[in-house]
């Protein structure tokens, strides 16, 4: 059975929102600004940009 394109788009959005929640949680806790924080911040910015298009 072929999935409808709209369903696939909703799945992608759901995945992005899940990733967004993980990164937001990371920055709500104490963090040091290390390389992992920098990578998470960049991912967070890309996710927000993609979700607000």
H/E topology pattern: HH
The number of helical segments is 2
Calculate Rg over CA atoms.
Answer: 14 Å
Please give the largest β-sheet: none
Overall spatial form: elongated
Arithmetic mean pLDDT: 91
The percent range for helix content is over 70%
Q: Gap between N and C termini, in Å? A: 30 Å
Q: Helix/strand/pairing class, anyone? A: mainly alpha
Into which percentage range does the β-strand content fall?
under 5%
Overview features:
single chain; 53 residues; mainly alpha; 2 helices; 0% strand; elongated
Mind explaining what this structure looks like?
The N and C termini lie far apart (30 Å). The model has no long low-confidence stretch (mean pLDDT 91). The protein is elongated. Helix content is 77%, strand content 0%. It is mainly alpha-helical and 53 residues long.
Brief summary of the model shown:
By secondary structure, the protein is an all-alpha fold. It has helices at residues 5-28, 35-51. The mean pLDDT is 91.
């Amino acid at each position: 059975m072929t999935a409808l394109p709209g369903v696939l788009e909703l799945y992608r959005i759901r995945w992005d929102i899940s990733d967004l929640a993980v990164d937001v949680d990371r920055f709500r806790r104490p963090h040091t600004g290390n390389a992992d924080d920098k990578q998470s911040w960049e991912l967070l910015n890309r996710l927000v940009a993609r979700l607000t298009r």
